[in-house]
Design brief:
alpha+beta, four-stranded mixed beta sheet, globular
Length: 191
């Protein structure tokens, strides 16, 4: 739950010291704003059962539905392009179902002979849309061979991004909020 709270804070529901440009702030001055009932409701809206369900789905412990087809992810390794395409489509459809604008960003690493795609969902800010708050994780995982469930690499982070998006959906914010689920982060910037 702390991870989800941190994501909500980073999304601009309250101003953190880093967003205010505060250097040398102490931990007691990190959140110098009044309590927000909206934030309290959003945090309460994150249910442990949903966290566990999404984690089971991304790690292949439970089946998922992608494009109207029920299947089980056995890996999300970037080297298995078909599997990562299913994982990214699962995340894409999750964002789309919450009416968050979402696109794919294709990338390629010709030297390694590998390609993939990222999922980028965005809620445009109303007052300062050029200021972008990023909430990210990588949805692919290791190892290269065999089953790669990747709960800690990085299904848990991906679930955090997905649930932050779900809680923020339908609200408006000063800044643009961009949710990005990367693949191929081990290969560096490309595409």
């Amino acid at each position: 739950m702390r991870k989800i709270f941190a994501l909500l804070v980073a999304a601009g529901l309250v101003l953190s010291a880093s967003l205010m440009g505060c250097s040398g702030c102490t931990s007691s001055s990190l959140f110098p704003v009044a309590r927000s009932e909206t934030v309290v409701q959003m945090i309460a809206g994150v249910q442990q059962a949903e966290v566990e369900r999404l984690l089971r789905e991304l790690t292949g412990e439970s089946p998922i539905e992608v494009g109207g087809v029920t299947l089980t992810l056995t890996t999300r390794n970037t080297g298995n392009e078909a599997a990562t395409r299913l994982a990214t489509q699962f995340v894409f459809e999750f964002m789309q179902d919450r009416d968050i604008g979402v696109v794919y960003h294709d990338w390629a690493d010709p030297e390694e002979g590998i390609a993939g795609r990222n999922v980028i969902a965005q809620m445009d800010g109303v007052d300062r849309p050029d200021e972008i708050v990023m909430i990210t994780a990588h949805v692919d995982c290791m190892p290269d061979e065999g089953r790669a469930p990747g709960a800690d690499d990085n299904a848990s982070g991906s679930v955090g991004v997905m649930l932050a998006a779900a809680q923020l959906a339908g609200h408006t914010f000063e800044r643009t909020i961009r949710f990005v689920l990367f693949t191929g982060e081990e290969y560096g910037p490309s595409g």
